[in-house]
Structure formats: C-alpha cells, structure tokens
Write a structure and sequence with these properties.
- With 345 residues, the chain is of the alpha/beta class.
- The chain contains 14 helices and nine strands.
- The longest helix has 18 residues.
- The structure holds adenosine-5'-triphosphate (ATP) and magnesium ion.
C-alpha cells in the first residue's frame, strides 16, 4: 500500500507498527467495544484461571484492523503468560511448526496470525498438538524413517484469520472458542479516538472526534491513523484540531464522507457503471478492478455490505439505491446489467 492510502485497513509500515504498539490496549477492560466477544473471553479466561489450567484455544476472525492481534496480546497479558508470535506464511513446513511447538514453555500463548495461510502439512501436525499437546516427529529418512512421539508443554493457541471460511473444518473444530469481530459503531470509535488523543497529548474537541469516527470504515486502526493526520494538519497550520481541521485534512487525503478509500470507490464505480449496478460475480469484479478476489472478499466487501452500499445476492453483488445516491449516479433502467454473463457465484 502507498503512504497516502489512509483508509487501507491493512497494516502499512514499521512506523505504523510502532505507533500501534503504543496505542494498543493492554487489558480487556481497556479494550473498547466488541462487548459480546469481550464477555465471552473474560469468562473463558477466568474459568481457566480458577481451575489453574491453560485456557482453551481461541480463534479470532474478522477484517483487518479490528483488534485481533491486540486481543491475542491481551489473552497472554491477562493470564500473566508469555506470548510467542508467529504467522501462517512463516510456517511453510511441518518442521517450522515443530520447532515452535517443541520450544513452548508451560502455559505459553502461541499466536498464529493469518493461520489460514499455514502449510497443509503443518496444519495436520497442529491438530494433534491442539488436542493432545503432542506431536509426532519423523526421525531418519527413507525406509528407515520412524515417527517419534513428543510431548509438548500445555499451551493456548490463538489463531487469527480474516477468512474463517478458508480454515479446514478439523482445524476450526479444535478451537474451544471462535470470536467473530465486528466493525465498530461510531460511539465506540469515538472512545478509541478519545483514548488515543489523550495518549498522543492532542487537544481535539468532541465534534472533531465524531467527524473522524464517521470516516474510518468502522476500523480502530484507520481511526488512529486518521487522527495522526489530523494532528499533523493542526500542527502545520498552527490551529486547533477542530471539525474544520478534520475536514480539510481528510479531504486532502481523499477520504470521503463515508470513509471510502480508492479501492472501495473503484469497486463501487465498477459495479455501478460497468455492470449497471449488478449483479456481478466476485471474480469478474476482482479482474475489473485489478485486485485479488481474496482482498475484495475479506477487506472491501464486508465494509460495503455493512454500510449498505452493496448486497450479496445468489446472483452476485448488487449496488443498493443508497450507492447510486452516494455516487450521484442514476440507474438507467431497472434491468440494466441483468443480461451480463455471470461467471462465478
Ligand atoms: N477495541 C479496541 N480498542 C482500542 N483500540 C483498538 C481496539 N482494537 C484495535 N485497536 C487499535 O487498532 C490497532 C490495530 O489493531 P490490531 O493490530 O489488533 O488489528 P488486527 O485485527 O490484528 O489487524 P490485522 O488483521 O491487520 O492483523 C491497534 O494498535 C489498536 O491501537
Ligand atoms: Mg494483526
């Protein structure tokens, strides 16, 4: 992503990583929103603590920037447990996973980000590890190879994925608890922003915070990022961080009133103008905007559905009347686009 892609919910740079680290809530009590998930996690962690055992394995599912990594850290922190962080793409062989698992200390929390991208062979090793805290290691080569069982220290696996649907059932079933993170509402985002403003020592008023909250794609990561740009703007222009500063700063970065970014807009305009409002299949859409279908499905679409710009129908994605209005376009005729080939539903 480029630097000016302010509303890309995916993590941008090393600088952002450090910034996020500083703002990350450290406990469930500090974690804003996701009330249901928070309550469920609290119960799971408390019960485990009372029985002096490691908490069940936890799967965190949801679009980027909603707090999956943050929650994984909280799970470790609340239980006073060490945390080991890894990710699916880093585990390309069963041996990579065996090395991690065999070096865990008792009670450790193992976080595997993007767990849907782990190698298949590692996935199978993980089934046994999750269930019995045991793995089988192959020793030797060829005909003389034997498998040697190895006991592991009890651990809690926290997996994160933007695509829960891509996980094989045997893996999904081995998690004791799956948390589906939802986009945040504006009141929650205002809380996230208020907290971040205090931590940044930024003097910003309520209406300005509300204005940012309405434009951050329901995503705390984007909220914090926009807040940073507003801080820059107020600094450079020597003014207060008020609504005018927010509007000027966000207009400068091309973040519209609904918080749509360039890719969101490209997807919407493609559906509206090239496909007459839809329905259009996911793959056709992805090819038309030059983006991977996975990104459209996991990142763009959930947000557009959530704010009511598109609906998913059995025949494909369709623009809603609100979408036509937002883009100031008029639908030519009721059945425009209906005769287009539908490739992939
Ligand atoms: N509930 C929350 N309350 C306060 N801040 C939050 C909350 N959730 C996320 N944040 C902020 O948003 C930032 C991004 O969150 P996090 O890194 O946990 O997202 P993620 O779901 O892991 O994203 P990705 O899928 O890209 O890995 C954090 O640094 C944190 O400051
Ligand atoms: Mg993360």
């Amino acid at each position: 992503m480029s630097d000016d892609d302010l509303t890309d919910p995916q993590l941008a740079s090393e600088a952002e990583l450090a910034f996020e680290g500083a703002l990350r809530p450290k406990s469930l009590g500090e974690f804003v929103g996701q009330t249901r998930v928070r309550g469920q996690l609290q119960l799971l962690l408390s019960a485990a603590a009372m029985q002096q055992r490691t908490p069940d394995h936890i799967l965190l599912a949801g679009p980027p920037g909603l707090g999956k990594t943050t929650l994984a850290m909280i799970v470790a922190h609340e239980g006073g447990r060490p945390l080991r962080m890894s990710s699916g793409p880093a585990i390309q062989h069963a041996g990579d996973l065996a090395a991690i698992l065999s070096s865990l200390v008792p009670g450790e929390v193992l976080f595997i980000d993007e767990i849907h991208r782990m190698a298949r062979s590692a996935e199978e090793m993980l089934y046994l590890a999750m269930e019995d805290f045991r793995i089988d290691i192959m020793v030797g080569k060829g005909a003389g190879a034997t498998s040697v069982p190895l006991d592991l220290a009890p651990f809690t696996l926290v997996g994160a994925t933007t695509r829960a649907g891509l996980l094989p059932n045997p893996l999904r079933d081995r998690f004791g608890f799956t948390a589906h993170l939802e986009f945040y509402d504006e009141a929650e985002l205002e809380q996230v922003l208020g907290r971040a403003a205090v931590m940044l020592g930024l003097d910003i008023d309520g209406p300005a915070i509300a204005e940012i909250a309405g434009r951050c794609r329901g995503t705390p990561r984007i909220a914090n990022r926009l807040l940073r740009r507003v801080r820059d703007y107020a600094l450079v222009h020597g003014g207060r961080a008020d609504v005018e500063a927010v509007r000027a700063a966000l207009d400068l970065y091309d973040v519209d009133a609904l918080g749509l970014d360039r890719l969101d807009r490209a997807v919407m305009l493609t559906i509206l103008t090239r496909f007459g409002g839809g329905p259009v299949g996911l793959n056709t859409l992805a090819v038309s905007v030059g983006e991977e279908a996975e990104t459209i499905e996991a990142v763009v679409e959930p947000f557009l559905v959530r704010i009511g710009l598109i609906t998913r129908t059995p025949r494909g994605r369709m623009a809603t009347p609100m979408a036509w209005r937002h883009f100031g376009l008029v639908r030519e005729s009721e059945d425009a686009g209906a005769t287009l080939p539908i490739d992939d539903l």
